[in-house]
Write a structure and sequence with these properties.
The complex is a heterodimer of chains A (about 210) and B (about 450). With about 210 residues, chain A is α/β, with parallel strands linked by helices. In chain A, about 50% of the residues lie in helices and about 15% in strands. Chain A has ten helices and six strands. In chain A, strand 4, helix 4 and strand 5 form a beta-alpha-beta unit. The mean pLDDT of chain A is about 85. With about 450 residues, chain B is α+β, with helices and mostly antiparallel strands. Chain B is about 70% helix and about 10% strand. A five-stranded mixed β-sheet of chain B has the order 1-2-3-5-4, with helices on one face. In chain B, a hairpin with a 2-residue loop joins strand 2 and strand 3. In chain B, helix 1 packs across helix 5 and helix 2 crosses helix 5. The relative contact order of chain B is 0.07. The C terminus of chain B is likely disordered. At the A-B interface, helix 3, helix 4 and helix 6 of A face helix 7, helix 8 and helix 9 of B.
């Protein structure tokens, strides 16, 4: 898998490169600012771009803007955005085009290399990987009087894990229930949220996130 | 087509005339009320004049110029003074209020703040109060206003009503037929009648303007002088400065404590865990592995705590995108439904932005904690060099500064920027909190993509 990294801190850029190379990925370019990211993406056509939110010259949300711009240049380009903090606002912006292939994770998640590389592969394959913290806040917020409130606690748990980009099998393992039970829960979630069931995991996740992001 | 337009035009002209006449009549009546007030003002004025007279005569008696019971007269004089000064102050307050409502002249109260130190001794307290009252130049300006109001002010305020009433008498003069059945007097028909109409029209037309002039006159004496304005300003600045410094110190202590008990402690624990893991790695690899996992968990927790701390000091979205976006992000995280409406053409200075953000954040937290609200509306505007933020909820109401609601803290925080907070929260709701902070916006941000 061919990866472009945009991260301004040398230590993190280097560490990230090594981590991914150790897991069989190839770093085709590692840049330290938003403008270079767009050039690198155009030049190398990578399978995924991993981008830090905060990049020079403004050190604000430069990376997010660059990632969105790169996705406009190349629609469907899988992008994994890393950040010291996660914001629902930014998660929404990333998901806005509904194209899939979006990840938004706290930098801490890099520490768990197995899960992190799984997330990278998931996003590169067109799936989504939302940070559990984003999901937790989405769900906490939606405790009000809308359709989400009709979900049982277990269903909310399943929904959260789905949004993180986990497969039914992974969810079953995590919650220590059978895959059939997970399938039953997901079907119930979609019915309650008024979403058409679909065989495609990623599209279901996107639909759920789109719903949450309303 | 043009005929209809002309008719429409005439109609609106008539309507405008009628509206002006009504305004004029209202203003004339208000002028009369102000005259009445000025007349009442003569009573405390007489009280003060009497006092001065007695004091002078008393002094004369002491010097042996006149005979008579001096102490009794002095006592009467004191009572007259004690009664008249608060009375004049009350009248001045009422005049200020009416000037704001009727004359469209807002007049700020010019008084020095009342001394608030506790004083158990009643006599000393009274003496101090009297000193405060008599030492304030505004007290004497209030008194000076009384004769001014009763003379020039009276003329100004009564003129429109005089014109209207006098004019009306003249205007109906031609209708008053002489008793012998002869036709109306020619002079009345040609001169008095029309002149009366003109006088009524003039009175009605001029009334609002004269009322405004009366307000301006009152403002000259009842409003704060430059000196008292500066005095009030200095008091305000001294108070807000010490509040700001206190708040800053408290905040720094909180951050220090959070770091000390949180991230710092976790990093120490992590170091020790890693140390032990290092010792065990050859002899008991399994135990070392468990310790390493523990260390990693500790680092994740430390990071989470640092993140929360940073969010509390300077929220990332505020830094990245500015106030509206940061408040939208707050709204997304809130447990109630929040609508954010606002588009600021630029960004306030960072301290103002931060104060406004934390004020809204605190208000939202209040709503969640106390209001039992289902919906919250936040709107942000900037006009007339003023940042205005309204936070409205459909909760139970009954919020007031000082009930441990944190409103006082917000008020203090805004006061450092000369900002103000107004709360309307009747029992049963809704609660409306309006904040205003004077500030300029930086030039509109230029988006990088």
């Amino acid at each position: 898998m061919r990866v472009v990294i945009a991260e301004d801190l040398f230590l993190l850029r280097d560490g990230l490169s090594r981590l991914l190379e150790a897991n069989g990925m190839r770093i085709v370019a590692a840049v330290d600012n938003g403008a270079d990211l767009r050039t690198a993406v155009a030049e190398h056509e990578p399978d995924i771009a991993i981008v830090d939110v905060r990049l020079p010259p403004t050190f604000t949300d430069e990376g997010l803007r660059a990632a969105l711009a790169a996705r406009r240049d190349r629609p469907g380009l899988p992008v994994l955005v890393l950040s010291q903090y996660v914001e629902q606002l930014y998660a929404r912006e990333l998901l806005a085009d509904g194209g899939g292939g979006i990840g938004y994770l706290l930098k801490d998640r890099v520490l768990d290399s197995a899960q992190f590389t799984a997330a990278v592969r998931q996003v590169a394959a067109g799936g989504t990987a939302m940070d559990p913290e984003v999901i937790a806040r989405l769900l906490a917020r939606s405790s009000g009087g809308d359709a989400l409130a009709t979900l049982s606690p277990r269903e909310r748990e399943v929904l959260g894990l789905m949004a993180e980009g986990r497969s039914n099998a992974a969810i079953a393992q995590r919650l220590v229930i059978t895959e059939r039970a997970v399938a039953k829960h997901t079907a119930s979630i979609f019915t309650r949220l008024g979403l058409q069931p679909s065989d495609d995991d990623n599209r279901r996740v996107l639909a759920v996130l789109a719903y949450l992001g309303q | 087509m043009s005929g209809a337009a002309v008719t429409g035009g005439t109609r609106t002209w008539w309507r405008r005339c009628l509206e002006r006449a009504v305004d004029g009549a209202v203003a004339a009546v208000r002028g009369l009320v102000l005259c009445g007030l000025a007349a009442i003002g003569l009573i405390p004025l007489a009280g003060v004049a009497l006092t001065l007279l007695y004091v002078m005569r008393g002094a004369g008696e002491l010097l042996g110029l006149h005979g008579g019971p001096y102490p009794g007269k002095l006592g009467a004089a004191t009572i007259a003074l004690i009664a008249s000064i608060p009375a004049s102050r009350r009248l001045a307050k009422f005049t200020r209020y009416l000037a704001g409502r009727w004359c469209r002249v807002a007049i700020a109260a010019p008084y020095r703040p009342m001394p608030r130190d506790a004083e158990p001794n009643l006599v000393k307290l009274l003496v101090r109060r009297a000193g405060w009252l008599l030492g304030d130049p505004a007290t004497w300006r209030d008194l000076l206003w009384l004769p001014v109001a009763a003379s020039g002010g009276l003329l100004l305020a009564a003129a429109p009503a005089g014109f209207v009433l006098g004019g009306a008498v003249g205007a109906i003069a031609p209708l008053r037929l002489p008793g012998d059945g002869s036709p109306p007097h020619l002079l009345h028909l040609v001169v008095t009648g029309p002149a009366g109409f003109v006088a009524v029209a003039l009175g009605l037309f001029a009334a609002p303007m004269l009322l405004h002039a009366y307000g301006n006159l009152a403002s000259e004496l009842l409003g704060p002088t430059r000196g008292s304005q500066l005095e009030q300003r200095v008091t305000h600045l001294a108070r807000t400065r010490s509040d700001t410094l206190d708040a800053g110190a408290v905040e720094l202590r909180r951050i220090e404590r959070d770091l000390h008990d949180g991230a710092q402690a976790r990093l120490v624990a992590m170091g020790m865990t890693l140390e032990v893991a290092g010792q065990l790695v050859d002899t008991e690899p399994a135990a070392a592995k468990a310790l390493l996992a523990e260390a990693r968990q500790s680092s994740a927790k430390a990071l989470a705590e640092l993140r929360d701390l940073v969010r509390g000091i300077h929220p990332p979205v505020l830094a990245d995108r500015g106030l509206t976006a940061a408040i939208s992000a707050l709204a997304l995280d809130s447990q109630v439904w929040v609508s954010v409406d606002g588009d600021l053409p630029g960004r306030p200075s960072p301290p103002v932005e931060s104060a406004a953000y934390f004020a809204v954040s605190e208000l939202l937290a209040n709503v969640v904690k106390h209001a039992e609200a289902r919906r919250v509306w936040i709107d942000l505007r900037h006009d007339n060099a003023m940042l205005r933020i309204g936070v409205t909820d459909d909760g139970v109401g009954g919020a007031a500064p000082g009930h441990g609601s944190g409103l006082r803290g917000i008020e203090r925080r805004l006061a450092a920027f000369d900002g103000v907070l107004a709360v309307s929260s009747p029992p049963g709701g809704p609660t409306v909190v309006n904040m205003e902070i004077p500030c300029e916006l930086s030039s509109p941000k230029t988006s990088s993509c």
